[in-house]
Amino acid sequence: MNSMYTDIRIRKVKNVAMHLLMVILTLIAVTPLISIVGYIAIKGYRVINWEFLTSLPAPPTMDGGGIGPAIVGTVKLVGLASLMGIPTGILTAIYLNEYGKSGAFASSVRFVIDVLIGTPSIVVGIAAFLFVVRPMGHFSLFAGSVALAIMIAPIVARATEEILRLVPDTLREASYALGVPKWRTIVSVVIPYATKGIVTGLMLGVARIAGETAPLIMTAFGSQFWNKSIFEPTSSLPKLIYSYSTTPYQNWIDKAWGAALVLIFMVLMLNIIARVLTRGKYSRLG
Amino acid sequence: MKEKMEAVAEQKIAIDLYKNGQNRKVMEPLFRWTSLVFAGLIVLSLAAMILVMVVESWPSITTFGIRFIWDTAWNPVTLEFGALPYIYGTVVSSIIAILVATPISIGCALFLTEMAPSWIRAPIGFLIELLAAIPSILFGLWGLFVFMPFVREYIQVPLNQFFGFIPLFAGEPRGLGMLSAGLLLAIMIIPIITALARDVISAVPSLQKEGALALGATKWEVMRKVILPYSRVGILGAVMLGLGRALGETMAVIMIIGNRPEINLSLLEPGQSMAGVIATQFNESIHSLHVSALIEIGLLLFLVTFLLNVIARFLIWKVSGGKNGVRVVQ
Amino acid sequence: MAKDMLVQDLKAWYGTQQILKNINLKIEKNSVTAIIGPSGCGKSTFIRCLNRMHEVTPGARVEGKVWFDGINLYDPDVDPVQIRKRVGMVFQKPNPFPTMSIFENVAAGLRLNGFKDKKRIPEIVERSLRMAALWDEVKDRLHESGMSLSGGQQQRLCIARSLAVEPEILLMDEPASALDPIATGHIEELIVELKDKVTIAIVTHNMQQAARIADYTAFFLHGELVEYNQTEKIFTSPDDKRTEDYLSGRFG
């Protein structure tokens, strides 16, 4: 009797101890986020001003100068990649959910999408180098965009397909029953219903590629100047953060933190807006 | 009655007035084939990627054969290339990451699904998902200037002081090195594993849990004896996806691992990763055999992550009942 | 301009499972024909075969002939999409397009089909809503979402949406099963009024409903048409023992 009593007590103590441990583990998981955002906000805030955001870079030991070309470069890279990758992703998702369904080809496309999403970005960088840089003979913004497009297309395809799967069949049937052809049903009934979810997927995809660095090293390369043509190399925020932070010059390191603040602001805003958008109807799919 | 008559009189105006009677013959196949072509484009891009990488690494594959994997020489001047130091760096840092991240992630997932009151569940889940969205270069920057000094002072120095006699923790604590890289990777993959493990754990039928609770089990006992065994396979899948991410990570590792192609037993010593050597040497390589060897490393990296992803997705697919429902944050 | 429809040797499958066996039936014009039977008897599948909606489901297959206005719907030359403009359908659960307003819902069949005479759309929308006995309730809020209506109103909106493309036959798949008794009453009244303009075939699991509104009734069991006759005849002196058993509640 007595031994059973202590047994329960030990079990209860153990129960509380394990609960406590889990709280601690959760804190350990969350602390880095706060630390990263906090450091970038504080250190970045000190260097950010109008000149910093709009000027050409200055040499290492000189004051002034900024990261203008890197911001513009990142926007152009991501924009061009989105132009190529987003339509590809959405049309692929339409094919998968509306036409291919569970057929053999559709299943293999889904498998390829999973493989591409899991492929290390540096490998995509090598591929884009071999596809674009080597035939053209030089680094370019275009090559960087190709790498990022290969990354965003499968992300968008998978997110969009999950959203399209949530569109009730009753809506498609209601449209068919009016004699509306399938393509028009997709364009005017299915897509409008899924717009919010699709936009969310796009924003998460854009946020993901905006911070990619590794594939840009061997494609877009980097530059000290404003990018004038997509067939020239370009500076970008992630690449600039990498280059500046690994130098011994304090003012470049400071600028790396400033650039980091700009980048994290872009990425987190996209994420937060996307997740606020999906509250409610699509909450499972954020 | 008058209204009815009008309705009848107006019947049959419609059919010939619709444009898309004729349009449809063009639009229907056009739409179907366009979407099919773009889906094909995705498949083609992967096929082309694999093809060019095999072709371009062929010189290296034929020159060094299988010994590429265990040779330690890496000399762009004498054109001797062996990838072992990089494979070692990638594998060891990833193992550290998995060993550290797995228990934390499972604890965090259990907290989020089983313990946390709902008002805290959403914000913490939100924070974890945001952590997954932070670009790796920012982990690298933070790792270099904030995390690395912290690791040196509070982890490496004590480890070395008390366990320095074990070869794993021998040597000078300098911050940069395998251990720091592994820990930074752990921080990066915790959100991925947590988010997936959370989905897997919440798929455990509540009947199972309630049954155990009704028998007088404490909540922890339910977790250990019911939830964890039930979701074991799915969690394993989540861990493998996290491992895949760690193996392929480039920027954060470059900035903190030390970038020296050495094989040291001590975790305090520097090393270099597979992705890292590609990123740092690719643009500087002059000889085509050097490029070819770097691409072969990329190909190896691709194959390993490919296999991990296939296995992981199969495991997760199995536990989620064959549905495509489990979301992957990457 | 309502039309009749003649069903000849109709068979339907889902995958390898045969749902309908040799159905022969004539749906009379300007009348209401009720399809009754226990659940799983194939009654929904049957009316989905009448505007070629059955084949929308993957794995579904149909054999046989359905004659409508001198053409066989299952003739290889017939375009199912064109057929569905002339044979409309209302579903079990109200399914207005959630992204569209009340007005746009009714106009959807016209707009999405590229109706050229755009100026006539408001007029057709009003007429359709009037026919569906919904006009007075929604005329002041045509630009609100269709989802803002009650369940019964939503179903009448769906009926108006079907009527806007001026079908000659309207198929209804248990249109009142998701509605409360009052809304059901409205729908039933509406169906009786509509038969002057359009032939109606309605699936229902509610025998009283069939008795109230239908001119003809067909009783389905296990994918077979057991009995078809005037409603009065079916409900007072059915020829088949199985019909009698079903109607007296002995099974199903």
Keywords summarizing the entry:
heterotrimer; A: 286 residues; mainly alpha; 11 helices; disordered C terminus; B: 330 residues; two-stranded antiparallel ribbon; disordered N terminus
Describe the structure.
Chain A is an all-alpha fold and 286 residues long. Chain A has eleven helices and no strands. Chain A has helices at residues 2-47, 50-54, 68-100, 104-118, 121-136, 141-166, 169-176, 182-210, 214-217, 237-245, 250-277. In chain A, helix 3 (68-100) runs antiparallel to helix 8 (182-210), helix 3 (68-100) packs across helix 10 (237-245) and helix 4 crosses helix 6 (141-166). Chain B contains eleven helices and two strands, in the order H-H-E-E-H-H-H-H-H-H-H-H-H. Chain B has helices at residues 2-10, 20-64, 84-115, 118-133, 136-163, 178-201, 206-214, 219-248, 251-257, 274-281, 288-319, and strands at residues 74-75, 80-81. Chain B has a two-stranded antiparallel sheet with strand order 1-2. With 252 residues, chain C is an alpha/beta fold. The radius of gyration of chain C is 18 Å and the shape is globular. Chain C has ten helices and ten strands. In chain C, strands 6-7-8-3-9-10 form a six-stranded mixed sheet, with helices on both faces. A four-stranded antiparallel sheet of chain C has the order 2-1-4-5, with helices on one face. Chains in contact: A-B, A-C, B-C. Chains A and B meet through helix 1, helix 3, helix 4, helix 5 and helix 6 of A and helix 2, helix 3, helix 4, helix 5 and helix 6 of B.
Brief summary of the model shown:
The complex is a heterotrimer of chains A (286), B (330) and C (252). Chain A has 286 residues and is mainly alpha-helical.
